[in-house]
Amino acid sequence: MTPRAVLIGPPGAGKSTIGRRLARALDVDIFDTDVAIERETGRTIPEIFAHDGEPAFRTIEEDVVRRALLEQDGIVSLGGGSILSEATRERLAGHTVVYLEISVAEGLKRTGANDSRPLLAGGDPRQKYRDLMRRRRPLYRKVSTIRVRTDGRSPARVVQQLVAKLEP
Ligand SMILES: Nc1ncnc2c1ncn2[C@@H]1O[C@H](COP(=O)(O)OP(=O)(O)O)[C@@H](O)[C@H]1O
Ligand SMILES: O=C(O)C1=C[C@@H](OP(=O)(O)O)[C@@H](O)[C@H](O)C1
Ligand SMILES: [Mg+2]
User: Fold this and answer.
1) Which residue among 4, 107, 108, 168 sits deepest, i.e. has the most Cβ atoms within 10 Å of its Cβ?
2) Domains and CATH numbers, the chain
3) Which numbered ligand comes closest to the C-alpha of 129?
4) Which residues contact 36 (CB under 8 A, 6 or more apart)?
5) HEC per residue, 5-48
6) Phi, psi values for residue 142, rounded to 5°
7) Which residues, other chains included, contact 105 with Cβ-Cβ below 8 Å and sequence gap of 6+?
8) CB of 14 closer than 6 angstroms to any ligand 2 atom
9) Helix (H, G, I), strand (E, B), or coil: what is residue 77?
10) CA-to-CA distance for 71 and 125, rounded, in angstroms?
11) Distance, CA 16 to ligand 3 centroid (Å)?
């Protein structure tokens, strides 16, 4: 069993939104690792970050992603920072991995309106997002097998392009 596609990219790229819509279009299941982490721990992601810290969150995330890659056969949407784990990057080899690309400006617009992402909270969000992208962009590129730009494209359009690219 292997996922039809694994979605990666920074916060706001649309992994959760596109994941749900793509799964519906392909008539397969959606598995969002952030949703699974909240379900399994019974806590929200901001709570986990606040009480246990980011390293503890990453440990839980790595294990949830590991199992998802083994057990899921639909669309798997990862959290934006999951590719920071070298073990996860190695496990992604051989999978269909879609990098949802987004500019810093557009990513900030999409994530700015809520405080559900602890990594961007506090301080200057623009600087935080830029630093995050500088560190992660090479990793997203390295582990992906398909790249799709999402700036100025509606979710419906992104899904349409992905369906065409994923067609067997
Ligand atoms: N292609 C898109 N165009 C415009 N808004 C989008 C697009 N994709 C996602 N969004 C919006 O951006 C926000 C973040 O999307 P989300 O799917 O949670 O991103 P991620 O899971 O990658 O962090 C949501 O409000 C969503 O509706
Ligand atoms: O980029 C990150 O490090 C994170 C992104 C979030 O998911 P989204 O990418 O779906 O926003 C979530 O996993 C957590 O807040 C950490
Ligand atoms: Mg998400």
Assistant:
1) 107
2) 5-155 (3.40.50.300)
3) 2
4) 64, 68
5) EEEECCCCCCHHHHHHHHHHHHCCCEEEHHHHHHHHHCCCHHHH
6) -65, -40
7) none
8) no
9) strand
10) 35
11) 4
For 157, the enclosing helix (H) or strand (E) is helix 155-166
pLDDT tens, residue by residue, 122-157? 778 888 999 999 999 999 999 999 999 999 999 999
Quick one: which atom of ligand 1 is closest to the CA of 79? Answer: 21
* Residues 6+ positions from 55 with CB-CB distance below 8 Å: none
Cα 62 to chain centroid distance, Å, stands at 13
The backbone region for 167, taken as left when phi is positive above 0, alpha when psi lies in -120 to 50, beta otherwise, is: beta
Q: Which two structure tokens, joined as six digits, stand for 64?
A: 């949830």
DSSP 102-147: --HHHHHHHHTT----GGG-SS-HHHHHHHHHHHHHHHHHHH-SEE
Binding site feature residues: 12-17, 34, 58, 80, 117, 136, 153
The answer to whether ipTM exceeds 0.90 is yes
Which of ligand 2's atoms lies nearest the C-alpha of 77?
10
Secondary structure letter of residue 83 according to DSSP: G
C-alpha of residue 13 to centroid of ligand 1, in Å: 6
